[in-house]
Specification:
Helix content: 40-55%
Structural class: alpha/beta
Distance between the termini: 33 Å
Number of strands: 11
Oligomer: single chain
Order of helices and strands: HHHHHHHHHHEEEEEHEEHEHEHEHE
Radius of gyration: 26 Å
Length: about 475
């Protein structure tokens, strides 16, 4: 394991005993979870058909009412699946990665929302046609007289707020902490819709199988949220009792925070993963900040490295030793076991993305992998962990190449000295046998996209290109 000197600096792990090698790819339980999600939609439609959902089609207002009930059922199922996608279920999280789950959560959320709008519209029209009332009058009657409908209307309003603020343009104008706080209202929206579905939803109570399915799905969703979003973080924070040990400058605007705690060897964290951190240093401690481990965990020490990009990250530099810390995690799937057995390793980092690569380097050093690190920086003074990376190169743990200077051209991920040859030829010049590597990439999203494009053009199979973004 890694050790520390009296100044709290993390030293590189020695090659030591080779770690067990695993092949990349999603674990079987991730595939099982994905299949179960798809089957849940099939089950909803099958139960609806089994309980005679199509029989009302021939009645006055039947087509609209029938379509409205079906869209409502599918919307409810997808809404619960959306919650489960971000419930931080460990096996699913490790199998897919946080960025993939966040993207699917967003897509499923938008689909479920528009199906819900379709449900409300179609049911109102269908009821109006069957009763001979106007659409507006029928809508009012539904909300104020049907059991649970007033709560459902309030829940729909909250979900509408969350959807509007989840549009990409709106997210860009918000801090992550603000968006995260507002997003919690989605849970309240789901909860407010529950009484309506169980009190007035004929398709929810039509048969014993339907009741078992819906009560089971709601119970499983609530259980996952309580256990993995609340219970597990509270337990780990209480058991490991993390505190700030030291705050050390690494480069201009970049600091490392060293944390000690109780039995950190039992914390199931790997290099490349991240936690949500809450530092109990005063007002605002409730806001969680996502930071990646910047060295592989040791028995009594964790390290994160933070660049000043906003209020939360600037505050990290002022933390005092002894400050208590609450954690959620670990999260993320960009770990060393993504590497295929026997393949060389290429680490490609830019900016603060070096934190992830530095932690991965520890794990690869222990496994005896042949590692090349390409580190893109604007100027030599910006290099984070320069001493540690140079030591790794000296000890033969990695071939380290600093790529400093201005951009070669618009859209290029390489510096100016490669302007004439281009990105593909430049990559092949730096790593001639690049197609034999598993590539791990971390940096700004547009820069990462350019690296992945070049890697594919150089013959690296997409299954051997590993990258993960913090998505929200």
């Amino acid at each position: 394991m890694s050790s520390t000197n009296v100044m709290g600096r993390v030293r590189l792990a020695g090659s030591g005993r080779p770690a067990a090698r695993r092949t990349p790819g999603r674990r079987w339980w991730a595939d099982l979870a994905g299949s179960a999600a798809l089957l849940s939609v099939v089950a909803v439609v099958a139960l609806w058909l089994h309980d005679g959902g199509i029989r009302a089609f021939a009645q006055p207002g039947g087509p609209a009412t029938t379509a409205g009930r079906l869209t409502g059922l599918v919307a409810s199922d997808l809404l619960l699946l959306q919650v489960l996608l971000m419930a931080r279920i460990p096996g699913v999280e490790r199998g897919y990665g946080q960025d993939t789950l966040a993207r699917r959560h967003r897509v499923v959320g938008f689909v479920s929302f528009w199906l819900m709008i379709g449900h409300l519209t179609l049911i109102t029209v269908g009821y109006a046609q069957s009763g001979g009332a106007g659409v507006v009058a029928e809508a009012w009657d539904l909300v104020v007289t049907y059991p649970g409908m007033l709560l459902a209307a309030a829940g729909t309003g909250l979900l509408f707020l969350v959807v509007v603020l989840s549009v990409r343009l709106a997210r860009r104008r918000q801090r992550y902490e603000t968006w995260h706080l507002i997003h919690l209202y989605a849970y309240l929206g789901v909860g407010l819709a529950l009484p309506h579905q169980l009190w007035t939803g004929a398709d929810f109570v039509a048969s014993a199988p339907a009741r078992i399915y819906w009560w089971g799905l709601y119970a499983a969703t609530l259980g996952a949220v309580v256990v993995f979003r609340v219970g597990l973080p509270v337990y780990r924070s209480a058991y490991h009792r993390l505190r700030v040990h030291a705050v050390v400058p690494e480069a201009p605007g970049v600091v490392s925070v060293y944390l000690r705690g109780h039995r950190l060897d039992r914390l199931p964290a790997r290099g490349g993963q991240f936690f949500l951190w809450r530092f109990l240093d005063g007002p605002g401690w409730t806001r969680a900040h996502p930071y990646t481990l910047s060295s592989a965990p040791s028995g009594d020490l964790l390290r994160i490295t933070v660049k000043e990009l906003g209020d939360g990250s600037s505050r990290v530099a002022t933390l005092r030793p002894g400050t208590r810390v609450l954690v959620e995690g670990p999260y993320g799937a960009l770990t060393a076991d993504r590497r295929a057995a026997g393949r060389k390793v290429l680490l490609v980092a830019a900016g603060v993305g070096i934190t992830t690569m530095r932690a991965l380097l520890d794990d690869f050093a222990r496994s005896g992998a042949q590692v090349t690190l390409l580190y893109r920086i604007r100027r030599p003074a910006d290099a984070v962990f320069r001493t540690e990376l140079d030591e790794a190169a000296r000890r033969g743990l990695a071939r380290v190449i600093y790529l400093d200077g201005g951009r070669a051209r618009a859209g290029s991920w390489l510096p100016a000295q490669f302007a004439r040859v281009g990105d593909l030829a430049g990559l092949r010049r730096l790593v001639p046998d690049v197609a034999q590597h598993d590539a791990f990439v971390c940096g700004p999203p547009p820069w990462m996209a350019g690296v992945r494009t070049t890697l594919r053009a150089a013959g690296v199979d997409p299954d051997h290109i590993h990258a993960e973004e913090f998505a929200w």
